[in-house]
Every structure is written in C-alpha cells, then in structure tokens.
Amino acid sequence: MEKTANPRVKICCISSLEEAWTAIRYGASALGLVSNMPSGPGVISEDLIAKIAACVPPPIATFLLTSSQDAQEIIEQHRRCRTNTIQICDRLESGSYEDIKSALPGISIVQVIHVTTEESLQEAVRIAPYVNAILLDSGNQSLLVKELGGTGRIHDWRLSAKIREQLDVPIFLAGGLNPDNVAIAVKQVAPFGLDLCNGVRSNGKLDESKLQRFFQQLKDD
C-alpha cells in the first residue's frame, strides 16, 4: 500500500454522544464504539452504540468493535448496532468474511492483527484479500483473559512497517499512540490511519488539550 501523507485518525473508546462530537470537532474521521470485551477500556452498551452511530454524520466512520469469533453472531450484533464499519478484534473462527459481506452489503470489515512475531505478518497477508482494512494492535490473544485492544502498549513498529509494505489494503496503526510519539509512528510505519484511545484521555475521559496536541503534532509533521 502506498504511503499516506496525512493519516486518518480514529478515536476509540467513545463513551457518549458528547465524546463523539468532541472527537469529530478536533479532526477525527472515525469513531470506535466498543462492545463487550474480555478486558480493556471503553465498553458501552449496544443500545448506546446504536444511538451514537445513528447521530454521527455520514462522512465519519463508526466502528463497532466486536470480540465475537462467529460470523453469524457478528452479523446479528451489527444489525442491533447499525454502524458503518465492523472491527473484528479476535480471529474469525466460525463462518467467513464472505458470510458477513453477503449479509451486510456496504458495511466495511476491518480485521485486527495483534502484532507479536513474524507470524503476524503471515496472518495479515493471508487475511487482507478478504477485508477492507487491517488494524495493527498490541493485544495478546494467548492470555487466559484475552487482551484485544486498549492496552496502551506500543508493539514493534518495524514489523508493522513490514506488514504495511506487503499489503494492498489500508493499514491502521494502534497501540500506545499519544501526542509525544505520533510523529515518529507516522514516519516509521506510514499507515493509512491511526487509532488511539488512552493516549488522548485523562482519567478515562477525552482530554481536549491532549486531542489538540495530538492533531497539532500530525499537522506539524
């Protein structure tokens, strides 16, 4: 995938309509709405996800973050939440991406790859032809209580850059991004988009001064 000069920004863990509008006002082009997860921040009810998704203007992408590994469950969950994008945070083990596409035409599918070893590269290359984008994060699916996002940890950006170079779909970079490291991340990985949660929050709430600094760093870069 070609380098993107100005990466799109997805603000994740949106917890209210007020947070949604704050993120959009500062420059977010996508919002992450987190449904039930085994661990991590930002989980809200499906009713609230549907309410926020219904109020966000069309140019803004609304991502339903799901921990389900079953295509039919994901389809049913999306029909309740009505976002324009589905972010699959774990490996799809039952059903297929094609099942989801057939049932939900026009809905984008983003698959999360948790970057750990060279195997992550192989996983991304295998899955990329079937999805609209790949999101590289720093979770750990092998723990007793899975980490599927929101860890606040940086992974190996050299491996992320390698993955980006080999794929023909857009790449989002997540994991430990904040106003202090975003310029370096963009230079090193050159992703299509950036995805962050904790890096622009204080005490779990969106912090406008951090949002301002984050977007300023992108502009300065």
TrEMBL record:
GO biological process: L-tryptophan biosynthetic process
Catalytic activity: N-(5-phospho-beta-D-ribosyl)anthranilate = 1-(2-carboxyphenylamino)-1-deoxy-D-ribulose 5-phosphate
Key words of the record: Amino-acid biosynthesis, Aromatic amino acid biosynthesis, Isomerase, Tryptophan biosynthesis
Pathway linked to the protein: Amino-acid biosynthesis; L-tryptophan biosynthesis; L-tryptophan from chorismate: step 3/5
Annotated ranges, domain N-(5'phosphoribosyl) anthranilate isomerase (PRAI): 10-217
Domain of life assignment: Bacteria
InterPro entries on file: Aldolase_TIM, PRAI_dom, RibuloseP-bd_barrel, TrpF_fam
HAMAP family registered for this protein in UniProt: PRAI (MF_00135)
Similarity section: Belongs to the TrpF family.
Protein name, UniProt field: N-(5'-phosphoribosyl)anthranilate isomerase
Phylogenetic classification of the source organism: Bacteria, Bacillati, Cyanobacteriota, Cyanophyceae, Nostocales
